[in-house]
Fold this protein.
Amino acid sequence: MKKANFVEIEGRSAGYLALLGFLGIFILAALGSTLYMEHNGHHVTGMTNQIVWGMPHVFAVFLIVAASGALNIASISSVFHKTAYKPLARLSGLLALALLVGGLMVLVLDLGRPDRLIIAMTKYNFRSIFAWNMILYNGFFLIVGIYIWTMMQRNLNKYTKYAGFAAFIWRLTLTTGTGSIFGFLVAREAYDSAIMAPMFIVMSFSFGLAIFLLVLMAAYNWTGRPLGDVIFTTLKNLLGVFVAGALYFVIVQHLTNIYAAGHIGVEEFILLNGGIYTKLFWIGQVLLGSLIPLALLYHPTWGKSRRLAGVAAALIIMGGMAQMYVIIIGGQAYPLELFPGMQVQSSFFDGMVNHYAPSLPEIMLGLGGMATAMITVALAIKVLRFLPESLADEVVDPHHH
Amino acid sequence: MSNTESSKNTELTRRKFLGTAAASAGLAIAPGVLLFRVAQAKPAAQAVTSKVRWGMLIDSTKCSTGCNDCVTACKTEHHLEGHNRPETDVQWIRKLKVTDKQTGHVMSLPMMCQHCENPPCVDVCPTGASFKRADGIVLVDRHICIGCRYCMMACPYKARSFEHEEVDDQAVSAPRGKGTVEACTMCVYRVDRDKQPACVEACSEAEHGAMLFGDLNDPESEISKRLAEYGGKQIRADLGLNTGVRYQGI
Amino acid sequence: MSVGLHKKKLKLLLAGLILTLPLSLFAEGNLPIVPKAKAKATAEYGCVNPVADMRKNHMEYLLHQRDQTMHKGIRTKKYSLAKCIECHVTPDKNGKYAEYGDDDFFCSSCHNYAAVSIDCFQCHNDKPQSAYSSLSSNKQSLPEGHEKFASNDTLPSGDAE
C-alpha cells in the first residue's frame, strides 16, 4: 500500500469559481433573509405562537446531526483502526466542522435577538440541555480541530488516535444532546420518548455519510483525481447499513410510542391522518429517503452504478430533511392535550391542528446554512491539505496489487 | 415655568383627590382586596422571599363561557394590542371552553401561565432568562432572553407568546419588545405593591368571583382555606409540576 | 418607538463626528445639548445623585436596578428607569414628546453624540406615564395601579423608600 499523498486542490478553474459564486449567492440570500426577518419581526415568517420552531430549525438540526455523522469515517479509521478509511479522515473531520458551522449559523440567525448572542455564550443555565449543547458544540470545534491538526502535522501523528477517540466520544455525546433537546419536552407527545437520543445517533450516521459521499464524489470528479472502486464500494455499502439502521429506529420509535407510551393520538396523526406530515413520513422519509436508496445501493446491477449511488445519497438527504420536518413541525402541529379526552376550544388555537406554511426567507436562511457548510469545505481544501491526490485502489486497499 | 407650576398644582389636587378616593374605594372593596394578604405590605427595598408563594384559585363553575372580563383586563393592563394576526399576536391569558365529548358537559376557564413550582420553561432556558422568583412567580427576564423559544416548546400550557413584531406604546409598567418571549407575570409589579393581578381584580369587580389570588404558604389566607376545604386541581397534574394556579369544578 | 431610519442616519453622521473626537467627550465645550429635566425638577430635588456622578455612572445604576427589580422584586424608585423618564422626558410646547433616537430625547442626546447604542426602549416606553394620564383622549386607557405609580411617587426624595 502506498502512503496517501495529501495535496491542496488548485482551485483556479472556472468551475471552481463558479461553484464559489453559486454558493455565495445562497449565503447572501440567507443574510438578506435574516435582515428582513429581524427587521420586521418573525411575523413575516411562517412561524407562529403555535409552530414556534420552523424551517430554520429543520435545516439547523439536520445539519448539526449530519455534522456529527460526517465524523464517522475519521472515527472508523482512528478508533477502529480500519486503515482503508485513513486517507479520508481529514476530509471527514473538515466536513463535520463545516456542517456544524452551517447548522449553528442558521440556528443563531433565527433567534429573536441574534444581537444577544454574547449572552448565550456567557450566561449558562446548567439545567438546560440547550445550554449543554452550546458547550458541546464549542467543544466539538475544539476537539475536532485538534484532531485534524494531529493528522496534518507529522510530528503530532502519534496523538491522532487519542484525539480521534476523544472526538468519537464527544460526537456521540453531542448527538445525544441534540436528540435530547426534543426528548426532554415531556409535554409534547410526539417527543416524549427516550428513544429520541439513540435514534438521532443512527440518523446522524446515515445523513453524515450521505453528505460525505456526495462531497467526495464531487471533489474527485471535478478535480479529475482518481477515486477507486474499493473505497467507493466500501462507503456505499456502509451507507446502506446506516440507512437500514435508521429505518429500524424509526419503526421502533413509532411502535414504542403507540404501545409503550400510549401516545396513540399523535401516532395516528403522523402515520394516518396528518395530511402533509403523513405524506412526508411515508413518501418522503420511508419510501424516497430509505427504501429506494436501499434498493439503489444493494441492487445487483444498480448497485454498481456510481451515479445511482449518488442519487441514493441525495435521496437520503432529502428523506432526512423530510424526517426532520415531520419530527419538528409535525410534532408541534399536533395540539397539546390539556384535557385528555375532552374537546378544547379557545381564541388561541387550542385543540386544533396547527397550521404552518414555510416562508421563503426561512427556506433561504436554511439553504444558506448548507451553502456555508459547502463553501467552507471548498475553501479549506484549497488552502490546506485535506484531500489525497489519489484514492485509486492501489492507494487505498492494502491487498490490492 | 407657569406650565410647570400649574401641572404641579393639578398634581397636588389630583393626589389629594386620589387619596380620598382610594380610601373610600378601599373601604368598599376592602374585603376583596385585603383577603389575599394578611401580613404587612412588603417595603419596596425588600427582596421577595420564599415564605410567600403566590397562587390563584379558579372556580370554573362560576366562570361563564361568554365572559371575557379577565382577558380584557389583562390586555388593557399590559397594552397587549394585537395586529389582527391571531397566529402571531401575543396572548397572556385566554379563555378555554372544554367540552366532555361523552356527556356534552361544558366547562369554562381562563388559562395562563400556571406558575409551576417545577417549571419546564425554566429548566430548558439556555441563558436563565426564564426564572422563578422566590415567591413562586415565573417570569422571563427579557433583558437576557435571546428569543430561542425553547421555553415555548417546553410549556405544557401554551402559556407563552413570542413577540413577533415591534411594539409601540407599551404600558410603562409592562415593557415588551420584539424578539423576546413573554407571558403572564401575575402582574408582578402590582403584587409587589400589594395589589391583586388585573384579571383577578376585574373578575371580582364584575362580581363573578371566579378568581381568587393569594399566598399558598399562609394557612390563614383565604385561598389556602378554600383549597384546604374544597381542594383545587392542577391541569396536567400527571406532569408533576405543582402549579401555582389551581382549579375547582374541573 | 420608530427608531429605525432616523437613528441610522444620525448614527452615520455621528460616526463621522466621533472619529474626529477624542474620548474627552465631556470635556468643557464639547458637551452635547442635553434636554433639561424641566418639569419635575427643582433646585431642591435635582437628579437622584450628583449630576457628575449620573453622567458617568448612570448605566451601572440602571443595570443594577434592573436585576434587583426583575429578580428580587425590589421596587425602590431611586434608580427606576420609569422614574428617570418621568423626570427627564417632558413634552415640548405643542405637547409632543421626543422619541428615543431623536437628538432632543434625553437619553439619546448624549448617546447619539457618543455613538452608544442601547436597546432599552425597544421594550420600555420612552414616554412618561404622565403623558398618558394628562391626555384623556389618548388611546391608552389608564388602569389603576399605573395612576398610583405615576402620581403618588413621582418625586423621589433622593433616596430609597
The radius of gyration of chain A is 21 Å. The interface with chain C takes residues 115 of chain A (CB under 8 Å).
